[in-house]
Amino acid sequence: MANDDLNLLRKKSSRHVLVIEACMAEDDKRRLFNISNRLRLAGNELIAIMRNSIEQLLRTKRYRKLKALYGRACENNDNALKSHLSAQMNVMQAEYGASWDYCRRAMIPIGKKYSLPSVFALTRAEDIWKGVEKVIYADGKMLRFSKRGELPILRAKQIERIITVKNIDGRLVFSCSGMTFSPIITDQFEEDEVNAVLNYLAHSEDIEAKAVKLFKETGEIPDTSRPCYAALKCEVIRGRLRVFIHLTIEGKAKRKFSKDGSPRHKYGRGVVGCDIGTQTIAYTSDKECGLRNLAERGEAITGSERKERLLLRKLDRSRRAMNPDNFNDDGTVKKGSRKWTFSKNYMEDRKKLSGFQRKNSINRHLAIREDVNHIRSLGDVFITEPRNARKLMIRSKETSVNEKTGKANRKKRFGKSIRNRCPGYFQSQAEMKFTLTGGRYIEVPYGYRASQYDHTNGEYVKRKLSQRMFTLSDGTAVQRDLYSSFLLYNASFDDTGELIIDGMSCTKSFTSINRMHEEEMERIRLSGKKVLNSGIRVQEGET
After folding, report:
1. What is the pLDDT of residues 95-108, one digit of tens each?
2. Which sequence spans correspond to the domains of the chain?
3. What angle do CA 498, 515, 286 make, to 5 degrees?
4. Number of alpha carbons in the 13 Å side-chain half-sphere of residue 339
5. Which of 70, 188, 232, 341 has the fewest CB atoms within 10 Å, measured from its CB?
6. Exposed/middle/buried for residue 364 (C-beta within 10 Å: 0-12, 13-18, 19+)
7. pTM, two decimal places
8. What are phi and psi of 235, to 5 degrees?
């Protein structure tokens, strides 16, 4: 078996991460927490160095001019000019210490100062360099220091170094800095994943030889379940120290099964058009149509989110009462360095807030994955609009005045909604799910304008964002989000290969699809469950 063939197979293979809790002694947990905290301090020192280098670089007129010219070259697709400008920018970055080589070398003495393993220090430097790239090349503002309690992950990029894994008497055993521990298996899925890794460790040569042979003969990429590298995440949950293993495994994840042995998630066939809003999703398929709130998983989530909001307000009141000299008369925080004093109740409430935020974050992710799995059961082609959640979070630059009150309008846009509902995470999960399960993920071009098209006369009508219900030219009343998902459902490629709205397909399918839309709206009215920004009123007396 040639090493080149094996390396090519590993390069093309997909990977997934198995997150599983580690079973270890409390003293070992404290040691890992100490290492992670020292890594945080070392990372903060490196961030201070890189922040200074970035500020000095961006202060020069020449670099700002090169950056502006590079942006214009990207707009004009001038590759020759881009290469020329990029070479000059790289030279300036090296001169001012804003390069990966400088970042890596600067971390070496810092890592020795805090007695850190070189692998952990190097991976922390890599994470910081990704932030530097966002500031230099993208829309990042400035590097942020890690606060006390924000422990970075302990990651080893090679399975043979620092964090190793072995098959000992049919058990998966990890080792890290003289500590040994095993994973805690809680369900059948985790057991299947661990057994696959144990099987690879016991028969690695045979499995790789068969995989390379199959890849060379058919081009198929089999799942070898090779453990690529491991990482350790230290977390404090309900006052307890807990350590989680993040094991990166080569190949696709094992399929989940119900207690009766049937597959837990079913994969459908057909087209699904999905309109993703800031707080809701609307989807249309030939089997089912739906309109629901994003990241919502029962009444318990709503109550937990409300408790989080109330606790934030309580903390703000306490902070202002204990530090009145740090605030201006209008309630804003004074500029400059300030000394803060916090009460004991404040510190206890901040721990409670951390617990609520952790639970709400997990619940949002679980709710979104459940929605994605349900939509995957309806079809294998997912059509949606391009991502715009990040743009919607940006504050408005222009100051406008409200005509009724005469006061300035808020510059905030959809930041809180996007934070609570995570539409970007839903879209990324949908792309991953459909791609890995043999489906297709398609984004229509920006000129598609699904929310403005009227298929009954073939014209585009611009409507206000607040107009959730409107009437088509033939007199049919439709809901904006559901109708947009219907137009995405009827997308097709034209002669030039660009996605457009298929008017003929819309006319043929509208009667049956609109009937399902009306049934969905009636279900929402009768359920008493309000769908945000939908324009659908629930029955009186319900919420």
Report:
1. 999 999 999 999 99
2. 3-27+156-250, 34-151, 271-298+363-527
3. 45
4. 0
5. 341
6. buried
7. 0.85
8. -140, 150
